Amino acid sequence: MKISLVIPAFNEEKALKAVISEYEPYADEIIIVDDGSSDSTCRIAESLTDGKVRLFRHEKNQGKVAALRTGVTHSSGDIVIFTDADCTYPARYIPDFLEKIEAGYDLVLGSRQIRTENIPLFNRLGNFIFSSLAAYISGKTIVDSQTGFRAFRREMFAKFDVDAKSLEFETKMTVRAAKLGYKIAEVPIEYRERVGISKLRPVRDGFKMFFGLLTVAWNETSPLGKMIMFPSAIFILLGLGFGLVALYERFTVYYLVNEYYPLIAVFSILLGIQLISIGLIVDYLTKKLDRLEEKLS
Ligand SMILES: Nc1nc2c(ncn2[C@@H]2O[C@H](COP(=O)(O)OP(=O)(O)OP(=O)(O)O)[C@@H](O)[C@H]2O)c(=O)[nH]1
Ligand SMILES: [Mg+2]
């Protein structure tokens, strides 16, 4: 199996050289994509190129995802591995990744579970929230949906690729793969302290991730799942309406004018939540059948 490593690099002059020498023994092809860096990243990358290490350049900065796509397009391996150009992800886990792929997993995630103190606290909180949300949406337990260190068979990229420009890409890709019923493996990895300056802007990227997740959740839900989930919005709004009126009465006239309102509110909201859950289950089962059919055909 030929292994292609794709490394997006944007102003990573401090770390790039060390990253390449660390990954060299583990890959058959290393593709660096310099994304219009304004520091000496490009010069350093050029000095590293040889038969194995190749460099592609974007004249202007186009974002991490554009760089990843350029990398995959020019790669020729059976397996593609993504990693960051910042020394955070140790290369030594690659053999474990390959083992998982050989065992039939479609997407392998380097799940940051060892020395997580190297992830800033705020980002760790974000990781926890988004991974939980991703797990709820996809019906699968995923500890680290956002990791940038991941592997898959090259032909799978077309299925996993999602509409995103920056760091919300990984989370969306994970959820899409999970939603579509592909097999995801997590390999617990150590996360090292970053070399150089972080490009992550936690609040902005957090918002993008949140809305990105909702879009994937809805887009990747099967029509039947959507049909079941759709009325839930009406029931929840109705429930909230009745609940608010009841609260208003309780706090202004101090007794309930419409004594059934709280009951209607609770039932409506519960019904809404039930419908969402049933929709998710139906969707999950439909996807499972789809994958089964795909395997049989
Ligand atoms: N090509 C390209 N790469 C980028 C861009 N922004 C970030 N990157 C690269 O994408 C990788 C991930 O960015 P990071 O800043 O490490 O973000 P992160 O890993 O979520 O956060 P840290 O924990 O701070 O490292 C790094 O290798 C960056 O060089 C960009 O605009 N273009
Ligand atoms: Mg990083």
Question: What keyword list fits this structure?
Answer:
297 residues, binds guanosine-5'-triphosphate, 2 domains, binds magnesium ion, 52% helix, alpha/beta
Structure characterization notes:
This protein is α/β, with parallel strands linked by helices and 297 residues long. It has 2 domains: 3-219, Alpha-Beta Complex (Spore Coat Polysaccharide Biosynthesis Protein SpsA, Chain A); 223-296. The chain is built from 10 helices and 7 strands. It has helices spanning 16-23, 41-48, 64-74, 94-102, 121-138, 157-160, 169-179, 202-219, 223-252, 261-296, and strands spanning 3-9, 29-35, 53-58, 79-82, 107-114, 150-153, 184-190. The chain has a 7-stranded mixed β-sheet with strand order 3-2-1-4-6-5-7, sandwiched between helices. Strand 1, helix 1 (16-23) and strand 2 (29-35) form a beta-alpha-beta unit. Helix 9 runs antiparallel to helix 10. It is elongated and about 80 Å long. The mean pLDDT is 93. Bound molecules: guanosine-5'-triphosphate and magnesium ion.
What's the tally of helices?
10
**What proportion of the residues is helical, as a percent range?**
40-55%
> What's the N-to-C terminus distance?
24 Å
- CATH superfamily (homologous) name of the largest domain: Spore Coat Polysaccharide Biosynthesis Protein SpsA, Chain A
Question: Strand sequence of the main sheet, in spatial order?
Answer: 3-2-1-4-6-5-7
- Unreliable stretches: none
Q: Mean pLDDT, nearest integer?
A: 93
CATH fold annotation of the largest domain: Spore Coat Polysaccharide Biosynthesis Protein SpsA, Chain A
* Tally of discrete structural domains: 2
CATH architecture of the largest domain: Alpha-Beta Complex
